[in-house]
Amino acid sequence: MTVTVTWYLVLAAALFSMGAAGVLIRRNALIMFMSIELMLNSVNLTFVAVSKHLGLIEGQVAALFVMVIAAAEVTVGLAIIVAIFRFRSSANVDELSELRG
Amino acid sequence: MTDFLWLLVALPLAGAALNLILGKRIGEPRSGWFGFGLIAISFVIGFGASLGFFAGTSNPQTIYLFSWIPAVGADAAILWDPLSALLTMIVTGVGALIHLYSIGYMHGDDRYPRFFAFLNLFIASMMILVLASNFAVMFVGWELVGLSSYLLISFWFTKPEAAAAGKKAFVVNRIGDWGFLVALMLIFMTFGTFDFRTIFENAPAMFGVGAGTITAITLLLFVGAAGKSAQIPLYVWLPDAMEGPTPVSALIHAATMVTAGVFMMARSAVLFELAPVSAGVVAVVGTLTALLAAVIAVAQTDIKRVLAYSTISQLGYMVLGIGVGAYAAGVFHLTTHAMFKALLFLGAGSVIHALANQQDMRKMGALRKAMPITFITMAAAWLAISGMFPFSGFWSKDEVLAAAFARGGAWLILYVIGLGVALITAFYMTRLFAMTFLGSSRWDEGVTPHESPRTMTVPLVVLGLGTVFLGLFNTPARHAFEHFLEPAFSGVEQVEGLSIGLISTLAVVAVIVAIVGIIIGLRRYNTEVLPDETGAFWRRALAAFGVDDLYGRFLVAPGKAVADWWASVVDPKVVDGAVHGIAKGAIGGGERARAVQSGQVRWYAAVVAIGAVALVVFLLVLGGGF
Amino acid sequence: MAEAIVFIIFALVAIAGGLTMLTARNPVYAAVGLLSTMFAIAIMYVLLDAHLVAAVQVIIYAGAVMTLFLFVIMLIGVDRAQAYGDRPLIQKAMTGVVAVGFFATLVLAGREVWVTGSDAFGTPDLNGTIENVAKELFGNWTIVFLASVMLLTIAAVGTIALAHFPSGEEDGAS
Questions:
Q1: Is residue C86 part of a domain?
Q2: Distance CA B214, CA B222 (A)
Q3: Where are the beta strands (DSSP E) in chain A?
Q4: What beta strand segments (E) does B212-263 contain?
Q5: CA end-to-end span of chain C, whole Å?
Q6: What is the CB-side half-sphere exposure of residue B243 using CA atoms within 13 A?
């Protein structure tokens, strides 16, 4: 029994779906954020797996860049959450609907 | 020096912009000095660049600036030949003096800087018109002149008459512009370009004398010229334009706007040579305009209105000169007229200023002692416009009439009418002069006339010197002026060839006519009591023979009716309906679309997720077709 | 065979961590679940010979990002975490459908040859050592690398701007 690229892709798909479900059902802004991180991770896994599969190192470089951007996103995102929490005493996303049209 | 010619347009334009933006901050009178300075610099540049033409060493040249509409041969370029050089000097020279004069005249006006911004804009427009190297650019200047004249005539727009006068000038000029525009279309259809040189070089080869196309073009050009240069039937705007400040009247009537039409026809001299019918029409209309305006001027009581009608009358002479083919003579009269008419207007402004805005000549008189400088300079202008030897008006008017005489045949009728107009001109100018400066004082109570400040008298003196001596440049014995202009009229036959003896006879006749007119005028008006002028002729002439009423009844009223119908029926139902319908549709669509924007992050995320799934499914169904 | 065993074990760990994150009422548990998933993914990278990426995964994600998350959770307060449970049933069901549909389509996509390129898997000589990745990163991707540097700087500045409150505006929520 050998591990093929499909195994990795299926695992990545499962993790990605969990992340998507987390964004959709969790109310806590922090956990929604974590779900997004999970989705990014699953994409990274796909990148690296396909990189190995095709013999192209660019996939790993792309994974590194995704990590950099994720790090930047996390700092800003968490700062926003803290700022919101300071004003509203709540991290419940459903209460934030100021942009309603 | 020709490298700097673009500054002729750029400087006044910059002055207009700066005065408009920073004028309030610069304040009075510095904004006025600023505007004057720029125009004076322009004059120096124009004069310096013209030196080559005086010496006869330079040739006409086209100075390319940048490409504007290459497809129609319309580059932004300067055609620098004696004609444009001459007009440049008139416009900037007289314009600069009028700026200087306005510094004192407009003192205390609320919108002082704005006035100078408009004056500068006027000069800039005129320079674009004059320096254009093709009809398209000329048209741009032409329209800008119309705009700036509107701004200046209705400068005191809180006065209803001034606002109406500005509107009238604009509308009447539009009619002329229409003729010019159609002429331009015809020119482009015929020649495929707007470039002056190309057109004028090719026209004689392409068409014989009297060709229909050229006749149509020139007639339409004349319609345009009639609008700007106030010829029958489009002269009605000019007397009303007196509602503007007096320096504006001087600028419009002497140096800039009214000369545009004559200049344009002189520029197109080659075309008029090819269309004798048009030239005939031009000559006849010019003569009739001169006659009609002179007769109306006789009865006017407002000092500025007399001058306005005299301007129309003198323009008639210029147009006659163009019509008989004496282009240089027409342009020469334009030049001398620019001098003495600017002087007359500025002098009249000085008088009006001194009498606390009194414009009615019946309330003037005996100002000779109170205003010596104004009196002396006005006397020079009076003798010049009356055609007295050796003042400038004599030489130029005589040139035009001599040309008409030289053509012989039916043209002699025009000559005789022109001579008659000279008589009337001498008479009504004497009437103006005597009623203002001579006789007994009929001032209003409590008015003490005083001489105007230095900024106003200096331009008067300068213009006065020009009025006296300018004519000597072009005497029958020494045609310096015509030689100067020759390069601009290459390929155009000028009317010439009268013997010195015949010319002298004509001159003597003209002087006798002028003297007769002056003597009649002096005997009638240099008196203690003004003669009674309430007869039928006087009333009708004072009302300008009801031409305005006629236009009002037969042209303006029907136009208004159509406009009213359009405003009350078509506009609210058709136009507004369409506009409101579109707006309602947008509002309704927005109301429906805003439901999508719930403000819930989750909802947006779900939409993105569904979209992503749909995309992947779509690609799978396609089966890797990419 | 050993590779397959390792893969299966850590795939299960990853999925278990993901489910924990998805279902835990306490955000701290969710964070710990995510942490374990990230470690599992790091193992996957090692299996794929992507050693540098594996190391970075552990250092940045497990080390920095998750620590930051835990820190913010502690700052905001664990007790205030809201459960997802009171969500209407229909919404949960819909979420399930979307998630499963997602999974299904992704798996289907993974099985398609046009997505993966070819059936043959594994290029033995591809080794994600620091040297190899660095050559690629600083050879072909220098500009992008510099751009990411700028991005991080801007993010740092932005974070400070967002987190900085003048003392007067403090509303004392926590």
A1: no
A2: 12
A3: none
A4: none
A5: 53
A6: 23
Instruction: Answer for the pair C173, A101: CB distance below 8 angstroms, yes or no.
Output: no
Calculate how close chain C gets to B625, using CA atoms only, in Å.
9
Report the number of distinct structural domains present in chain C. Answer: 1
C 65-84 residues inside an 8 A Cβ radius of A? 65, 68-69, 72-73, 75-76, 80-84
Residue A92's beta-bridge partner residues?
Answer: A28
**Record: contact C76-A81, CB cut-off 8 A:** yes
Interchain CB contact of C92 with A (< 8 Å) = yes
pLDDT tens, position by position, B134-185? 898 999 999 999 888 888 888 888 888 888 888 888 888 888 899 999 999 9
Q: What is the CATH classification number for the domain harbouring C156?
A: 1.20.120
Contact across the interface for C21 and A31, Cβ inside 8 Å? yes
CA atoms within 13 A of residue B181's CA, in its CB half-sphere? 8
For every residue of B573-584, which 3-state class applies, written as one string? HHHHHHHHHHHH
- Tell me: the pLDDT tens digits for B80-96? 888 899 899 989 998 99
For B144, list phi and psi in degrees, rounded to 5: -65, -35
Alpha-carbon span B112 to B103, nearest angstrom: 9
Residue closest to B380 by CA, chosen among B396, B372, B391: B391
Cis peptide before B558 (omega within 30 of 0): no
CA distance A57 to chain B (A): 24
Which tokens belong to C32? 């710990």
Residue A93 CA: distances (Å) to CA of A7, A96, B35, B128, C80: 35, 5, 65, 66, 13
Q: What is each CA distance from C106 to A15, B554, C114, in whole angstroms? A: 11, 83, 13
Q: Which two tokens stand for residue B275?
A: 């269309």
What are the domain boundaries of chain A?
5-100
Domain extents for chain B? Answer: 299-542, 600-626
Q: How many Å apart are CA B391 and CA C44, to the nearest integer?
A: 109
Is C88 domain-assigned? no
Q: Which two tokens stand for residue B97?
A: 């003096």
Is residue B83 within 8 A of residue B266, CB to CB? The reply is: yes
Residue to test with chain B: of A9, A17, A23, A81, most B Cβ within 10 A: A23
Fold assignment, A5-100: Helix Hairpins (1.10.287)
Asked, for residue C162, whether it belongs to a domain, the answer is: yes
Residue of B nearest to A26 (CA): B602
Backbone angles phi, psi at B133, to 5 degrees: -105, 5
Please report, as a single letter, which amino acid is at residue C58.
V
Residue C156: which domain range?
2-79+94-170
Contact B387, B481 (CB under 8 A): no
Distances (CA, A) of C124 to A37, A45, A79, C121: 30, 18, 43, 9
Low-confidence ranges of chain C (pLDDT < 70): 77-89, 109-125, 165-174
**Residue B626, pLDDT above cutoff 50:** no
B chain contacts of residue A94, beta-carbon cutoff 8 Å? 600, 602
Q: What is residue B249's predicted lDDT score, i.e. its pLDDT?
A: 85
Q: What is the pTM of this model?
A: 0.67
**Most C CBs within 10 Å, among B617, B618, B621, to test the C interface:** B617
Q: Report which secondary-structure segment, H or E, holds C8.
A: helix C2-23
Residue B555 CB coordination number (10 Å): 12
In a domain, C145, yes or no: yes
Distance CA(C93)–CA(C89), nearest Å, equals: 6
Tokens describing residue B308:
């306005």
Amino acid (1-letter code) at residue C120: A
